[in-house]
TrEMBL record:
Residues 46-123 form the Carboxymuconolactone decarboxylase-like domain. GO terms for molecular function: peroxiredoxin activity. Keywords: Oxidoreductase, Peroxidase. This is Alkylhydroperoxidase-like protein. Signal peptide: none annotated. It comes from the Archaea. It holds the Pfam family CMD.
């Protein structure tokens, strides 16, 4: 159960309705997810979070499906079932196939495993890798 209440569209202030309308128009939906309804208890947080989400997940150098798969990976790492489910559904809607999801999950699992091994073995970062990552 969420802390506080969900702000339903019909009960929302004009400020919150404007954000809801933008979410539905941008995402081509006819409904508002509970995440947005709960954070709408604080209209400033709702607006700021939506504007940031819209900008970050909007058109850019990274393919839209790849952005969603990155969001899924971070959500899994953070243990957020809600975000994992929401962004898996969005990835599917944007064209992620079952094979793409399976491969992404395999990459996520491999990253988690090798991250744990590096941490356990306390492997120090190679100077060559550091330079390569910086584009040097």
């Amino acid at each position: 159960m969420p802390i506080g209440r969900k702000v339903e569209y019909e009960d929302a202030s004009p400020e919150v309705r404007a954000v809801y309308d933008d979410i539905m128009e941008t995402r081509k939906l006819r409904w508002i997810a509970d995440f947005w309804k709960v954070i709408a208890q604080d209209p400033a947080t709702l607006k700021r979070t939506w504007e940031s989400m819209k900008q970050t997940m909007g058109p850019g150098a990274i393919d839209p499906v790849a952005k969603e798969l990155i969001f899924v990976a971070v959500s899994i790492a953070n243990g957020c079932e809600y975000c994992t489910t929401a962004h898996t559904a969005t990835a599917r809607a944007k064209g992620a196939s079952p094979e793409m999801l399976a491969e992404a999950f395999a990459v996520m699992g491999m990253a988690a495993e090798t991250n744990a091994l590096v941490t356990a073995w306390q492997v120090e970062l190679d100077d060559r890798l550091r330079s390569a990552a910086r584009g040097c």
